[in-house]
Amino acid sequence: MGIIVDGIKQAFLLLIHGDKQMLQIAWLSLVVSGTATILSLLIGIPLGSILGLAKFPGRRVVVSLVNTGMGAPPVVVGLIVSIFLWRQGLLGFLHLMYSPGAMIIAQFIIAFPIVAGFTLAAMQQLDPKLRLQITALGVSKIQLVWQLLLEARLPLMAAVMAGFGAVISEVGASMMVGANITGQTRVMTTAIVGENSKGNFALAIALSVILMAIVYLVTLLLTMIQQRNKVR
Amino acid sequence: MKKLITPMLKMLFITAVLLGLVSSLFGCSSTTTATTTTTTNTATQVTTTLKTTSTTTMPVSTTTSSAVVTTSTTITPPLVKPANPEIILSSTTSTRDSGLMDVLIPIFQAKTGYVVKPVYVGSGAAIALGQAGNADVMLVHSPAAEVTFMQGGYGIYRRLVMHNDFIIMGPPTDPAGIKGTANPVDALKKIAASGAKFYSRGDNSGTDAMDKSLFAKAGITVKDGASTNPSWYIEGGAGTGMLDLLRVASEKGGYILTDRSTYVANQKVLTLDIMVQGDPSLLNVYHVIQVNPAVFPKVNAAGAQAFSDFMIDPATQKIIAQYGIAQYGQELFFPDFGKSESQLGSQ
Amino acid sequence: MNPMQTKAVPPALEANNLAVKLGGKQVLNIAELQVNKNEVLVIIGPNGSGKTTLLLSLALLIKPASGTITYQGYASSKNTATLELRRKLAVVFQEPLLLNTTVWNNITLGLRARKLPVEEIKARTEKWLARFGIADLAQRQAKTLSGGEAKRVSLARAFALQPDVLFLDEPFNGVDSPTRQALMEDFGSVLRETNVTTVMVTHDRSEALMMAHRVIVLINGSIRQMGTPPQVFSNPVDEEVANFVEAGNIMHGVVSSQSEGQALVDVGGLRLDVVSNLSAGAKVTMFLHDDDITISLPAAQTQLSSARNHYTGKISKIFPTGSQIRVTVDCGIPMVALITKRSWEELSLKIGDTVIVSFKASSIHLIPK
After folding, report:
1. Closest Cα partner for C59 from C192, C184, C158, C160?
2. How far apart are CA B44 and CA B40, in angstroms?
3. What is the pLDDT of residues B252-271, one digit of tens each?
4. C200 with C229: CB under 8 angstroms?
């Protein structure tokens, strides 16, 4: 138990002293996972909206793929992304392997089915007549989708939280496509794995505490945005 | 519904393009952190000199000691930024876990302007990365596999860099009673007879290849992942590395074969004692091999050459020799460039 | 279809050979339907008859499998024009279906979508909020409103669009009784005032009687009967319609005298005793439920003292409906009464028999024209 107390102490020391390496790792975690989440929103929300609102042949197949993607193991995603990004891979010319860019791609692939799935569910739980009512007000298709998204904003914030939560805490894919390189691709989770291997348990715990604080703060922020309208 | 899908598809497309842009932005940003400024480009000079003097052909390369070119020991930033600054180095977990590469890579990067992306896996996987053309240069310690690799034509310039040695470790209680046994093969026979646990990497790494070959000499057949393996032979290291398996053996009280450097650098977290050491058969030899650009045109041949040259540079060799003395009171690696593999083991 | 409509004014809305399929099953089959300018057309019919589907199809919210809907000469089949056409329509659903934002934003959404000038949006919104008596609710969150308030907002939202055609799907359903009365009165007066062409679905006969210029009876997805409320309610074309409309009696008349809340109304030669404060000369429409009328043999006349109205006539038509029989008695005007099979048999009645129909003055519902 002493080791946990040591770890928490060390976490505070690292934070108080603004340890440069720790800050860099935390910042990279936020940038990589934040970017991946934002991109996954840009893809996942339209995709979820289409699947939730439109009817087209093959829709069920796509929905089942999205649902499968929601549970895709990060290491599988990491492996597939690796195969594409390796030197000899299809996208090897991009020189993205073992870079934050590769991690963003992998995390994006992990997050967007989650966002799409949540959006789909949010859209489907809206009263189908609401859609007719909004259409009847003479709005364009885009305005219709926008209004429906506004109506579904509470569950959509849950989609954001779920997507971000999945990627910030993910380690398998980041390790595979980022390789935990000091100063380049080391993020909170891969750093924790590395420090744990080296037996630097206190540091590993310190990093864990900081990671959890980051997740908590981001979730708190999103929750406050989500619940803003509720308290009246 | 078509009218609804079309704008959505447009949005999907735009996002996909955006994803490409953003991720490539992050891809580049890591490489632009490399140093940029000037003076003489010693690395390039070294490269050209060595290319002409490395006359030996595959499979085993031993260059003559006359090939050594003097370079200053202070780090001089490169004159020009390399055209392709990204080098993928596939190496073994022992070079990471011993802490050596954390010292060498920053020096190399500062000297040459290259950015190294090291991938630490078992030697088997490291060689596989090279064999698929997904790495530019390898620093590995699995001689038999390396020779096969060279014979396959996948690599060029296999150069001896350094060695240390393998040791057999075990719990202080030593249930198999092997402590002090001189011959590692005898020790393994005793472990087998006692039924005490033996932890193997089981990942085709250099260490794994070594324990397999020693068991073979002891007349005990073990294979990676085979159900016919004896119950005391436990494979637990795949995908993690030497240090992780040492920790497992330490916690579970089992015997284990490890390279000395990983143990020494991490002994504070391990409750294992050295049981067997010093036999010539326990030698652990590291070579640097460049992936053959004739087979894989996409590899960063110039970068691989620069890294290989750096590893055998006298200044680097000196750093290798000194590494660990201050921190652990003993050297972890012995620089060997210029020697032949058969000369080793006589220290 | 409507012989009373002159061809000079083109219909506001016209549907031809309209077929709608839901899940592969045809639920609507309308050969021809016209909605005339400025009329209130009420669609009635049993549950599942396709009323709402017809309304939504006419409002261009459901795509028909085949057929055309022509709106002031523009066919809706062309996809590009749909939005433009839709902006001339407004729909009020059974549920208020307000968006999760303020009342103000709810009412202005359609106006903003039409890119109207800000001042006009403001003026229209304020006007319609005031007209429905909810000006003080403008900044409230829609989800904090009561059912009646929300309904008013949804009506105001529709009227603010100043539609050429207004569609309503059972707009007063699910609103509790006193609120509903006030709401219907306000809505009725707005409707008369704006004279907007209206298509309304209801299952409530009194709503249809009060508001409709014309009534459509929809059964199994097709129009079974169409006409003025008296035509439909007094003369159902068949038993199925009769069963559904539970034909009441609709009479038009003129008040001939008035005394302390009791009025006499002349209807086609009869003089009805009714409860009303309207003064002599007022034109009225009266509704009399068929089960408020009793039938007796002429000999039993003395026993009917409590009822104020007694008229003699001959049985002209009968419709058996389950345990009851709908009897039409010609008293100069047709009077429809509902009696039990048992009394029918006890009285041993048949077509052509002379009987006395009786009802209380208070049974008559009277609406000034």
Report:
1. C158
2. 9
3. 889 999 989 889 888 888 88
4. no
Q: Which residues of A touch B269 (CB under 8 A)?
A: 198-199
Q: From the centroid of its chain, how far is CA C317? A: 26
For residue B260, what are its two tokens? 């000395």
Q: Would you state the structure tokens that stand for residue C63, as one six-digit string?
A: 């795509």
Per the CB < 8 A criterion, the answer to whether B114 and B85 are in contact is yes
Report the gap between the CA of C21 and the closest CA in chain A (Å): 15
Query: Is the separation of the CB atoms in C68 and C60 below 8 Å?
Result: no
B 61-120 near A (Cβ less than 8 A): 84, 86, 88, 97, 102, 115, 117-120
B contact chains, 3+ CB pairs < 8 A: A
Q: Determine whether the interchain pair C113/A229 forms a contact, defined as Cβ–Cβ distance below 8 Å.
A: no
CB B139 within 8 A of CB B311: yes
For strand B115-121 and strand B86-92, is the pairing parallel, antiparallel, or unpaired? parallel
pLDDT band at B71 (very low <50, low <70, confident <90, very high): very low
Of A177-191, C107-121, C152-166, which gets the smallest average pLDDT?
A: A177-191
Tell me the C-alpha distance between B184 and C238, whole Å: 106
Which chain A residues are within 8 Å of C161, Cβ to Cβ?
137-138
Model confidence at A32, in pLDDT bands (50, 70, 90)?
Answer: very high
Is A130 touching C (CB cutoff 8 A)?
yes
If residue C33 lies in a helix (H) or strand (E), which one and from where to where?
A: strand C25-35
Token digits of residue C65: 């499998």
The pLDDT tens digits for B183-238 are 999 999 999 999 898 988 877 788 888 888 899 998 888 877 777 788 888 887 55
Sort residue C126 into left (φ over 0), alpha (ψ -120 to 50) or beta.
alpha
Picking from A3, A33, A45, A87 by the largest number of B CB atoms within 10 A of its own CB, the best residue to mutate is A87
Q: Which amino acid is at B291?
A: V
What phi and psi, each to the nearest 5 degrees, are found at residue C116? -75, 155
Residue owning tokens 């003699």: C312
Distance (Å) of CA B215 to CA A35, A172, B92: 50, 33, 22
Q: CB of A190 within 8 A of CB of A180?
A: yes
Could you tell me the domains of chain A? 28-201 (1.10.3720.10)
Q: At what angle do helices A74-85 and A100-124 cross, to 10 degrees?
A: 130
Query: How does pLDDT run across C195-210, given as a tens digit for each residue?
Result: 999 999 987 777 787 7
C93-135 pLDDT, tens digit per residue, is: 999 999 999 999 999 999 999 999 999 999 999 999 999 999 9
Tell me how far apart the alpha carbons of residues B317 and B321 are, in angstroms, rounded to a whole number. Answer: 6
How far apart CA A76 and CA C41 sit, in angstroms, is 62
Helix (H, G, I), strand (E, B) or coil at C154: helix
Under 8 Å between Cβ of B275 and B168: yes
- Reported as a pLDDT band with limits 50, 70 and 90, residue C153 is very high
Q: What is the signed CA dihedral for A183, A188, A193, A196, rounded to 10 degrees?
A: 90
Which has more pLDDT, C125 or C360?
C125
Give residues 220 to 259 of B whose Cβ lies within 8 Å of A: 240-241, 243-244, 247
- Which residue reads 């780090």 in tokens? B75
Cβ of B327: how many Cβ atoms within 10 Å? 11
**How many whole angstroms separate alpha carbon C106 and alpha carbon A134?**
10
How buried is B256 (Cβ within 10 angstroms: 0-12 exposed, 13-18 middle, 19+ buried)? buried
> What integer pLDDT is reported at residue C291 of this predicted model?
77
Run of H or E including B233:
strand B233-235
d(CA A7, CA C339): 90
| pLDDT tens by residue, C262-275 | 888 888 878 888 88
Farthest-apart Cα atoms in chain B, separation:
81
